[in-house]
Design goal:
The complex is a heterodimer. Chain A is mainly α. Chain A has one domain. Chain A is built from eleven helices and two strands, in the order αααααααβαβααα. In chain A, strands 1-2 form a two-stranded antiparallel ribbon. In chain A, α3 (about 35-60) packs across α4 (about 70-90) and α4 (about 70-90) packs antiparallel against α5. Chain A is globular, with a radius of gyration of 18 Å. By secondary structure, chain B is an all-alpha fold. Chain B has a two-stranded antiparallel ribbon. The longest helix of chain B has 24 residues, at about 45-70. Chain B is globular. The two termini of chain B are about 30 Å apart. Classes of the chains: A mainly alpha, B mainly alpha. At the A-B interface, α9 and α10 of A face α6 of B.
Chain lengths: ~220, ~375
């Protein structure tokens, strides 16, 4: 059982990562990752929705008939997203102004419906919870990484305005590279595609290298 | 769907080989670029030379790194084919001559890695690598890419010396305001946006004047239009390029420019100025004629050239940027597969739609 959970976590974080392996939810990935903070905020909001949606779908999996499952999932997800949307608007208003539209669009985030349909509706609650959490953290990690790369190259900062998202205690994360004005291109949409492309190439190369060393792969798998 | 023609029937013929290899073609293009490049070095002094050198070296380094990472065999041979060198050369010629060194290095990285090797190397890239880098640099670093210097020919009193030139390229020496200057197209765009018409814009003594020989502010290698024209004619004479692309580009720009100038001379530059200003000559003969990213057939090349020329005129006259050659090339690069699809030559012995021509006379019962 625990081995099963470990596989779930490993899949969510790396092997079946929402962005880097499934290539799902690319719309928010491209649109909001102009800084590490934005990526982190979007990732956390999505994770919250993903975990609760997975748990609810798993609980209802014997109640809902296959014919109406998609509308039911959508209603569930939409309710959760509305809650997250209002909560962000109330308590993290600055971040909400940046993420605004994309929070509402979590409803149609294919990663969430995808997990509900392909995993949560077929597995018990515990598994669904772990899967949602792992997938969400994997998604958050991917968005934060892309955001950090774009922010670093594009405006010469790291985690700008992180204290607004995480509280004043995290102000130490905010960094600025002195004397670097930044390459505007990385903040613009082409920068998102370029950053994601090179990260994907890097992941492919890592995986290929790992597959080429069978003894090591066996240890890790 | 039936295939347009029967693929099982062989279409190959004995092909004659003209003896042109990649290396020889690239070397010829570089030879044709040499006069205009040397003129650029003379006109803008040592910083231009250092920037050119750095860009070329960086292109070779990034080509080497990419080939190593991709595990390619015969790295030395690929490096020596001159394609990376030519990409770097063309990129350097389109940069502001006194740009700092990192502009050349970042540009080389974008051109070679993003523009070329990501697609699989020479022959696989969709967009012209030098132009990809030029546009990416312009959007990423607007300030250094639009800082032009007034021509200070080597040997003149104000020209920077060897060490000073090196300092300028390495970014150690700030550019004096007195040396900065506007390009002709940039000046026209600025003055028009201020509500002046062109007669007023070029009336002042400080306004940049059209210069046929190329004594003007601009990119490193774009100024010497006559030398670029001569280099282009050399390429035409040696069969490296064909006439369709350059003629298309020149006509595609000159015709709308002439019409617009005749209708509203206060708002549109005349065709001659358009042809000799900016990077048009460089583009028509050296960049739009890239084998990889332009259509393969004569009619396709003519269409491609016309599109480049027309888009250049549209961007220069109606767009936000004063110069649109690089954007025009990239836009037409994107259309190249479609042009290639429709501008196919008829196969010998087959109709345009690809059906074999019946050798029996039509209309007769057999």
């Amino acid at each position: 059982m625990s081995g099963n959970m470990t596989t779930l976590i490993r899949d969510g974080l790396w092997h079946n990562n929402v962005v880097f392996a499934q290539m799902l939810a690319l719309c928010p990935t491209m649109a909001v990752t102009t800084s590490g903070t934005n990526g982190l905020g979007m990732g956390l909001a999505t994770t919250a929705v993903l975990v609760v949606a997975n748990v609810l779908v798993s609980l209802l999996r014997r109640v809902v008939s296959p014919q109406v499952r998609i509308p039911v999932f959508i209603v569930l997800i939409a309710s959760l997203v509305t809650i997250v949307d209002m909560a962000l608007n109330a308590w993290l208003h600055e971040l909400y102004k940046v993420l605004g539209l994309f929070i509402a669009l979590i409803v149609v985030n294919c990663a969430i419906l995808g997990r509900a349909e392909s995993f949560a509706s077929r597995h018990p609650v515990g598994h669904a919870f772990i899967d949602g959490l792992a997938m969400g953290i994997g998604f958050t990690g991917a968005l934060t990484l892309i955001g950090l790369i774009r922010e670093f190259l594009g405006s010469g900062t790291l985690f700008a305005q992180a204290s607004q998202l995480l509280g004043p205690a995290f102000a130490f994360l905010e960094m600025r590279i002195p004397g670097y004005a930044g390459a505007l291109l990385m903040i613009l949409p082409p920068g998102a595609f370029a950053a994601l492309g090179f990260l994907l190439a890097g992941k492919q190369r890592l995986d290929a290298r790992r597959a080429a060393q069978p003894d090591k792969a066996a240890v890790l798998a | 769907m039936k295939p347009a023609y029967d693929a099982a029937q062989p279409l190959a013929a004995p092909h004659a080989h003209a003896g042109h290899g990649v290396r020889q073609t690239m070397m010829r293009v570089q030879l044709a670029l040499l006069p205009a490049t040397l003129f650029g070095f003379w006109l803008y002094g040592w910083p231009a030379f250092f920037l050119w050198l750095i860009t070329l070296a960086a292109c070779l380094v990034f080509e080497f790194i990419s080939l190593r990472l991709m595990g390619r065999a015969q790295i030395g041979r690929t490096l020596g084919d001159g394609s990376a060198l030519l990409t770097g050369w063309l990129l350097a010629l389109t940069l502001p001559p006194w740009a700092p060194w990192w502009v050349g290095v970042v540009g080389a990285c974008i051109a070679i890695v993003v523009g070329k090797q990501v697609f699989g190397g020479l022959g696989h890239n969709v967009f012209n690598p030098a132009m990809v880098a030029r546009v990416a640099l312009l959007i990423a670093f607007p300030l250094p890419l639009t800082t032009w210097v007034a021509p200070l020919p080597l040997g003149s009193a104000a020209a920077p010396g060897f060490v000073e030139g090196l300092q300028i390229t390495l970014g150690q020496l700030a550019l004096p305001d007195a040396m900065s200057s506007a390009t002709l197209l940039g000046h026209a765009k600025t003055e028009l946006s201020r509500g002046l018409d062109l007669a007023q814009a070029f009336a002042g003594s400080t306004a940049p004047q059209p210069s046929w020989v190329g004594l003007r502010a601009g990119s490193l290698g774009e100024s010497a239009a006559p030398l670029l024209l001569a280099g282009g004619l050399f390429l035409l004479a040696t069969g490296v390029i064909r006439w369709q692309t350059p003629v298309g580009v020149l006509a595609g720009l000159a015709v709308p420019a002439a019409i617009a100038h005749a209708l509203a001379p206060g708002h549109y530059l005349d065709a001659g100025t358009h042809l000799f200003a900016g990077a048009l000559m460089l583009c028509a003969f050296f960049i739009a004629t890239d084998y990889v990213t332009a259509p393969a057939t004569g009619s396709g090349q003519l269409l491609f050239g016309l599109g480049v020329g027309l888009l250049t005129w549209v961007i220069r006259s109606l767009g936000g940027y004063p110069e649109g050659v690089a954007f025009a090339i990239l836009l037409m690069n994107a259309l190249t597969p479609i042009i290639d699809h429709y501008a196919k030559p008829r196969i010998l012995g087959r109709t345009r739609s690809g059906r074999p021509i019946d050798p029996a006379p039509a209309g007769k019962e057999t």
